[in-house]
Design a protein that fits this description.
2 domains
């Protein structure tokens, strides 16, 4: 099936899951907002529904977010299981990282979710992001609630444990994570799951012989970290520092015996999620939620991530090797999957500008053709 037809089928399934026609219209209006890909999908910017109607849809009305997630993952599964490159089973990169949706002001309804972490105040999400071939999929997330609560490493491990069995049967999984996720419990947990991990590691991490990591002089060494009963392979690479400053040395460990160059190659791939964080925030606005309920916040995040997946499919349909223009890719999806919304907006704009057109000597007549 053509990928745009697949996206259209998914959107129709999501709309069919809404209990009433009124809620289907609200979902269409929100999808149109998110698929503008301009980073500010605020309800007051919608020309199709009033802000109060969209607020009720997000915070009050009864519709199943789980059903939306189930249908979205079902559509993703359909696509991934059709991906059959030649040769061995492809690697699926399972990237775990934490990002902050910075917020100011008071949010009494979900005050426990708003905390300060590394100097940033907001909602801190531990995100699990999948990459295989051309596919990019934000799969799941959990909220880190701050000090004295479940750590980001444990939340990340929980997300990895919840990956469905069919992914492990279809692909070879490799878990990539930042230094914050290189804890003993995280590595032990992945070992029990029989998964290969490549994570960042602090330069002063202790070895079992009480030396620190920076004492090593040769990459590709098998070492035993304090608290781990199994050996890991350690390598390092250098990042370009700011102008006038020396390069930064970054250490990477692999739970599998690999060459230093391979360990570093995998370690550098972890940064792909940082690019996705920037894309998601600047184009699809997960941090622009203004909801005052937990339900509204959760629904906002799910619809934002859904819009990214649809726009990504739009980019793939363009069959180009150029870097994505997310606004263009989202427009491709919108015009292919919700043409009636695009036409309604166009007619609305013509009516709003009709007086201006007449002053300039133009008369616009719109006649519906029989198809």
């Amino acid at each position: 099936m053509d990928i745009l037809a697949h996206a259209q089928e998914l959107i129709y399934h999501l709309l069919d899951g809404m209990p009433t026609p009124y809620q289907r219209q609200s979902l269409q209006a929100l999808l149109e907002l998110f698929l503008r890909a301009q980073g500010a999908p605020l309800p007051e910017h919608s020309p199709l529904k009033s802000p109060s109607a969209l607020s009720r849809f997000l915070n009050v009305y009864r519709w199943s977010v789980r059903e939306v997630i189930r249908r979205l993952r079902g559509a993703v599964r359909q696509q991934l299981q059709q991906y059959r490159p030649r040769g061995r089973r492809p690697h699926l990169q399972v990237i775990v990282d934490l990002t902050t949706l910075e917020k100011c002001g008071k949010f009494k309804a979900f005050e426990p979710l708003v905390s300060v972490f590394h100097g940033k105040r907001g909602v801190h999400l531990v995100v699990l992001y999948l990459i295989v071939g051309p596919w990019r999929i934000p799969w799941s997330f959990r909220v880190y609630r701050g000090k004295d609560t479940t750590s980001p490493a444990h939340l990340g491990l929980h997300l990895v444990r919840q990956l469905p069995r069919w992914l492990r049967q279809t692909f070879r999984l490799v878990v990539l994570a930042d230094t914050a996720f290189g804890s003993v419990d995280f590595l032990k947990g992945l070992r029990k799951l029989k998964l290969h991990a490549v994570t960042g590691v602090r330069y002063d991490r202790l070895l079992q012989d009480r030396r620190q990591l920076f004492h090593l002089h040769k990459p590709e060494q098998q070492v035993r970290l304090e608290g781990l009963a199994f050996p890991v392979t350690v390598a390092w690479f250098y990042l370009k520092g700011e102008e006038g400053k020396p390069r930064l040395k970054r250490y990477v460990l692999s739970t599998k015996s690999l060459k230093a160059s391979t360990t570093v190659w995998w370690g550098r791939h972890r940064w792909q999620i940082e690019g996705w964080f920037k894309t998601a925030k600047h184009c699809f606005g997960p941090h622009r939620f203004g909801q005052q309920t937990l339900k509204g916040l959760y629904r906002w995040l799910i619809l934002s991530l859904s819009a990214f997946i649809l726009a990504h499919w739009g980019y793939l349909s363009m069959n180009t090797k150029m870097l994505p223009d997310w606004a263009e890719a989202a427009t491709v999806v919108l015009e292919a999957c919700l043409p009636e919304i695009v036409v309604a907006l166009l007619l609305q704009e013509v009516e709003q500008k009709r007086l201006l057109l007449q002053k300039q000597g133009w008369e616009v007549q719109i006649i519906r053709c029989k198809i």
